[in-house]
C-alpha cells in the first residue's frame, strides 16, 4: 500500500505546524537566550525592549504561575534561567509581539549583565571534576578479572564519537490558543504530546484536563522532538495563558541548531581479550557521555548505551560502565538509536584495534562472536529467535564477500592514488523502551453509521509511515477499502497518557492496541451479520460479508447500518501493554526487550588519497524485517537510516569552541549527506524470517536499527587509509571528515 501521505506531500498540501491557519489576533513569540555558556546573571534589563514597537509582553521566570521546571526524568532544567545560565542558547525570557520581526528588533534591546563562570565542554573533564547528571551505572557478566588470564591476546584503546544535528526539515515550533474556562489547546510539533501536556500543566499550574495537545504530523523528528519540542510548546502556552491571546512560535534554522541538543558525543576506554581462535572472552568498557547542561533524556540514553555495549556479539565476561557527564552545552537528547549506536561504535573500535594488532580481517573476529540462540547478554536477557549469523551468512553469500575482498585487494595493489576499503557491519538492536513502564499504548476507533472509520492512536506521524501502517491494520481486519479509513491527528483528548512515538516501537505498540480495538468491534459485528447461524464463520472481504467462503447479500455499509439500528456500540477504545518484558535496576538484570532486530551490511568506499575525499561505491544489506507489512515504507526507513548513519560517521561534524559556542551553526558549516554523497548503490535484501509475535503483524520495528549500518562507513574508510598508509597507528575518532582522512593518510 502506498504511503497515505505521498500525494499531499508531493502537492505541498500536507499541514505542518507553520501551515496551520492562524486566528485573528495571533501574537508571535521569540525566546531570548543566553550568549555565554556558564555565568551568574547579575541583571536583566528589559525596559527598552518592552517599549519597542509592537511588543505586547516579555515574560521571564517571574511570570511562571506554576513551577519553572521542564526536566522530565530529573527536575534540573528551568524553563527560563533564574540566576544562572548553564549553556549558550538557554532561554532567559520570552518576547511576545505582533510580529516576529518586531520580536527580533526588541531582542536586540535586552541587556543582560553576566558574571562568567568556568566552562566545561569535555565529558572526561566533567567526570574528573565530579560533574555527573546521575550516578554511573555498571553492567556485569561473568568475571573479567579471572578472564584476562585465559586470554591469548589483550588490547586496550580509546574511541571517540561526535554528536549529530537532527536536522528535521521542519524546525521546532508550537501554536497555542485559548478555549473557554481557562483551557488551552496547543498544536505542537512533538513526538510526545503527553509529555508536552504534562509540562504545560506543571508550568502553568493547571490540571492536565485543561490542556489539549494536538499533533497532525512532523516534518521529521529523529528523536529531536521526543523531549525537546516541549519548551517551545510550554512557552507559547504560558503566553496564551497570561495574555488570553493565540500565540505562535516557529523556529529559524540557525536558532534551532544553536538552542537545541543533539546526539550525545561519547568518549570511551576499552579493553578486549581474545582466545587464539578469536573468541572474545572479556570486554571492559567505560563510556563518557557528553550530556550537556541538564539531564533531558541522558540517563535513558546512557542506559541504552549499556544495553548495546557489546553490539552484536556474545561476550561471556563483561564490565560496562557509563558516566553521564554534565557539561556547559545545550542538553543532548534522543537521536535515532538513542545511545545504542555509540555503545556499538566503541565495541567495533575494540574489534578493529584487535584485528589490526593481530593482522587479521576484522570480519573474522566479528563473525566468530555473533550472538547465537540461548546466549546471555550482559544484563541477563537470554537471546531467542536469533538471526545474527543467518543475516551475516546471507549478506556474505548474496553479495559475494570473498570475491569482493579479492577485487578490492587487486584494486589497491594496482592503484597508488585511490584506495578502496570494505567493512562489514552486523546490527542487533533491542526493541522496547528500556524503561519497561513506557511500553503501552491505546487506540480509539469509531465506525460512523455510513461505514466510514476514524482512528486515533498515540502514534505521531513523522515521515516514518506509521499512519499508513495503522490504516493497513484496520483494512486487514475489517476487509474494507483504505479510503474508508481516516487517521486523526494525535490528540491528548482522544488518547491519553501516551508514551512518545520513539524507540522504534510506535507501530508495534499503537498497532497492537488498534488491532485489539478492531478485533473487539469485529466480534460485536459478527452476531449482527448472522443472528441465527454460526457468527464465527463471518468474515469481511473487499467490503462484503461472507459466511465462511460464501458471499452473502450484506455489504460492509449494510452491516454497519444494521448494527446501528440494533443499537450495537460502534466505537472501541483498546489498551496494549507489551507482555514478557521486565527489568530490575537494582541488579542490572532482566529481560527489557520484546525482541531484537538483526541485519548485516557490507560497505565499500573509494578514498582519493591525494585529496582525502571519498565516495561510497555501494552498501549491500540483508535486513531482518520479519514479515514486512509495507515494503515501500520499510525499505524507505532502511535507506534513510543508512544515509543518516553514514552522515554521522563521515561529513557531519559538530564543533563547539572552548567557550561552548557552536561553530558549526548553519548548513554552510555543518555538512549533511546530499544526493552526491549517498552510496552510489544501496542494495537491500529481506532476510527470510518468521518475524516475531510481539511485532505488529510479525513486521519488525524498523525505525532506528538501520542507522547503525552507517557505522561500517567509518571502518571502511579506515581500512582504505590503512591500505595507503599501513604503518600508521590511527586513532578511532568519528566522524571521518575529509580533513581527518587526509591527516591520517599522511600520518607517520
Ligand atoms: N523516519 C522519518 N522519515 N522521520 C523521522 O523523524 N524518526 C526515526 C525513525 N524513522 C524518523 C524516521 C526514529 S528516531 C524513530 S524512534 C522511529 O522512526 C519512530 O517511529 P516508529 O516507532 O513508528 O518506527
Ligand atoms: N526513548 C526512551 C527512546 O525514552 N526510551 C528508550 O528506550 C528509547 N529507545 C530508543 C529511542 N528512544
Ligand atoms: Mo527515536 S531516537 O526513539 O525518537
The CATH topology of the largest domain is what? Aldehyde Oxidoreductase, domain 4
- Beta fraction: 25-35%
Tell me the helix content.
Answer: 25-40%
Main CATH class of the largest domain: Alpha Beta
Instruction: State the distance separating the first and last CA atoms.
Output: 55 Å
CATH architecture of the largest domain: 2-Layer Sandwich
CATH superfamily of the largest domain: Aldehyde oxidase/xanthine dehydrogenase, molybdopterin binding domain
| Number of continuous helical runs | 19
Topology:
Layout: H1 6-11, E1 27-33, E2 39-45, H2 47-51, E3 55-59, E4 84-85, E5 91-97, H3 100-107, E6 111-116, H4 123-128, E7 137-141, H5 144-150, E8 153-161, E9 173-178, E10 184-188, H6 193-204, E11 211-215, H7 230-243, E12 247-250, H8 253-259, E13 266-274, E14 280-292, H9 298-307, E15 317-326, H10 340-358, H11 362-368, H12 388-398, H13 401-414, E16 418-431, E17 440-447, E18 453-457, H14 466-478, E19 485-487, E20 490-491, H15 506-529, E21 538-541, E22 544-547, E23 550-555, H16 556-565, E24 571-577, E25 582-584, E26 589-591, E27 595-608, E28 614-623, H17 631-649, E29 681-686, H18 711-724, E30 732-734, H19 738-745
Parallel strand pairs: 1-12, 8-30, 10-11, 14-15, 18-19, 28-29
Antiparallel strand pairs: 1-5, 2-4, 2-6, 3-5, 7-15, 8-13, 9-10, 9-12, 11-20, 13-14, 16-27, 17-18, 17-24, 21-22, 22-23, 25-26, 27-28
Helix pairs in contact: 6-7, 9-10, 10-11, 14-15, 17-18
The structure holds ligand MTE, pteridine-2,4(1H,3H)-dione and dioxothiomolybdenum(VI) ion.
Pteridine-2,4(1H,3H)-dione binds at residues 297, 300, 304, 334, 338, 433-435, 502-503.
Amino acid at each position: 500500500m502506498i504511503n497515505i501521505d505521498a500525494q499531499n506531500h508531493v502537492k505541498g498540501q500536507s499541514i505542518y505546524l507553520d501551515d496551520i491557519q492562524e486566528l485573528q489576533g495571533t501574537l508571535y513569540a521569540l525566546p531570548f537566550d543566553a550568549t555565554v555558556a556558564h555565568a551568574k546573571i547579575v541583571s536583566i534589563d528589559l525596559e527598552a525592549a518592552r517599549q519597542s514597537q509592537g511588543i505586547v509582553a516579555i515574560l521571564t521566570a517571574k511570570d511562571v504561575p506554576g513551577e519553572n521546571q521542564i526536566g522530565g526524568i530529573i527536575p534540573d532544567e528551568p524553563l527560563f534561567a533564574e540566576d544562572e545560565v548553564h549553556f549558550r542558547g538557554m532561554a532567559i525570557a520570552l518576547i511576545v509581539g505582533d510580529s516576529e520581526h518586531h520580536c527580533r528588533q526588541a531582542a536586540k534591546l535586552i541587556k543582560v549583565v553576566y558574571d562568567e563562570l568556568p566552562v566545561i565542554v569535555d565529558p572526561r573533564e566533567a567526570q574528573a571534576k565530579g560533574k555527573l547528571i546521575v550516578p554511573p551505572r555498571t553492567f556485569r557478566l561473568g568475571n573479567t578479572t579471572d578472564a584476562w588470564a585465559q586470554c591469548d591476546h589483550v588490547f586496550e584503546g580509546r574511541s571517540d564519537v561526535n554528536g549529530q544535528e537532527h536536522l528535521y526539515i521542519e524546525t521546532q515550533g508550537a501554536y497555542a490558543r485559548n478555549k473557554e474556562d481557562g483551557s488551552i489547546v496547543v498544536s505542537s510539533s512533538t513526538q510526545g504530546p503527553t509529555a508536552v501536556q504534562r509540562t504545560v500543566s506543571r508550568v502553568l499550574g493547571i490540571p492536565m484536563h485543561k490542556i489539549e495537545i494536538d499533533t497532525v504530523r512532523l516534518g521529521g523528528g529523529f528523536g529531536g522532538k521526543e523531549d525537546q519540542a516541549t519548551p517551545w510548546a510550554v512557552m507559547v502556552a504560558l503566553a496564551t495563558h497570561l495574555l488570553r491571546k493565540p500565540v505562535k512560535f516557529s523556529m529559524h534554522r540557525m536558532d534551532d541548531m544553536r538552542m537545541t541538543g543533539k546526539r550525545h558525543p561519547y568518549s570511551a576506554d576499552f579493553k578486549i581479550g581474545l582466545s587464539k581462535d578469536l573468541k572474545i572472552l572479556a570486554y571492559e568498557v567505560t563510556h563518557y557521555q557528553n550530556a550537556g547542561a541538564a539531564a533531558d533524556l541522558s540517563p535513558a540514553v546512557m542506559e541504552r548505551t549499556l544495553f548495546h555495549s557489546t553490539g552484536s556479539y556474545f561476550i561471556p565476561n563483561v564490565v560496562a560502565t557509563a558516566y553521564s557527564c554534565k557539561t556547559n552545552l545545550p542538553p543532548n537528547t534522543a537521536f535515532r538509536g538513542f545511545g545504542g549506536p555509540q555503545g556499538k561504535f566503541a565495541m567495533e573500535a575494540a574489534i578493529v584495534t584487535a584485528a589490526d594488532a593481530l593482522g587479521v580481517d576484522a570480519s573474522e573476529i566479528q563473525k566468530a562472536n555473533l550472538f547465537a540462540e540461548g546466549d546471555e547478554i550482559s544484563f541477563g536477557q537470554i537471546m531467542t529467535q536469533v538471526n545474527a549469523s543467518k543475516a551475516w551468512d546471507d549478506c556474505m553469500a548474496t553479495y559475494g564477500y570473498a570475491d569482493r575482498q579479492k577485487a578490492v585487494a587487486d584494486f589497491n595493489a594496482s592503484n597508488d592514488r585511490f584506495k578502496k576499503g570494505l567493512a562489514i557491519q552486523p546490527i542487533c538492536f533491542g526493541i522496547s523502551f528500556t524503561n519497561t513502564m513506557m511500553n503501552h499504548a491505546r487506540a480509539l476507533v469509531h465506525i460512523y453509521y455510513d461505514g466510514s472509520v476514524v482512528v486515533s492512536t498515540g502514534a505521531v506521524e513523522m515521515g516514518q509511515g506509521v499512519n499508513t501502517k495503522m490504516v493497513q491494520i484496520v483494512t486487514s481486519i475489517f476487509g474494507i477499502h483504505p479510503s474508508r479509513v481516516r487517521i486523526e491527528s494525535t490528540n491528548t483528548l482522544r488518547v491519553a497518557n501516551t508514551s512518545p512515538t520513539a524507540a522504534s516501537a510506535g507501530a508495534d505498540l499503537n498497532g497492537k492496541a488498534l488491532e485489539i480495538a478492531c478485533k473487539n468491534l469485529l466480534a460485536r459485528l459478527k452476531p449482527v451479520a448472522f443472528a441465527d447461524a454460526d457468527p464465527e464463520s463471518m468474515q469481511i472481504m473487499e467490503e462484503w460479508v461472507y459466511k465462511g467462503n460464501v458471499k452473502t447479500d450484506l455489504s460492509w455499509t449494510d452491516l454497519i447500518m444494521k448494527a446501528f439500528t440494533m443499537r450495537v456500540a460502534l466505537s472501541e477504545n483498546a489498551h496494549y501493554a507489551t507482555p514478557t518484558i521486565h527489568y530490575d535496576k537494582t541488579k542490572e538484570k532482566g529481560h527489557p526487550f520484546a525482541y531484537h532486530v538483526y541485519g548485516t551490511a557490507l560497505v565499500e568506499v573509494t578514498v582519493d588519497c591525494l585529496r582525502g575525499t571519498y565516495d561510497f561505491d555501494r552498501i549491500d544489506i540483508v535486513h531482518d524485517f520479519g514479515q514486512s507489512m509495507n515494503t515501500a515504507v520499510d525499505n524507505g526507513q532502511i535507506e534513510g537510516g543508512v544515509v543518516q548513519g553514514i552522515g554521522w560517521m563521515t561529513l557531519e561534524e559538530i564543533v563547539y569552541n572552548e567557550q561552548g559556542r557552536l561553530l558549526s551553526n548553519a548548513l554552510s558549516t555543518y555538512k549533511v549527506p546530499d544526493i552526491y554523497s549517498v552510496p552510489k548503490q544501496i542494495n537491500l535484501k529481506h532476510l527470510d524470517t518468521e518475524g516475531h509475535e510481539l511485532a505488529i503483524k510479525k513486521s519488525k520495528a524498523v525505525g532506528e536499527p538501520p542507522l547503525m549500518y552507517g557505522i561500517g562507513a567509518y571502518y571502511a574508510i579506515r581500512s582504505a587509509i590503512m591500505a595507503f598508509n599501513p604503518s600508521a597507528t590511527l586513532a578511532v575518532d568519528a566522524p571521518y571528515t575529509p580533513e581527518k582522512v587526509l591527516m591520517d593518510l599522511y600520518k607517520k
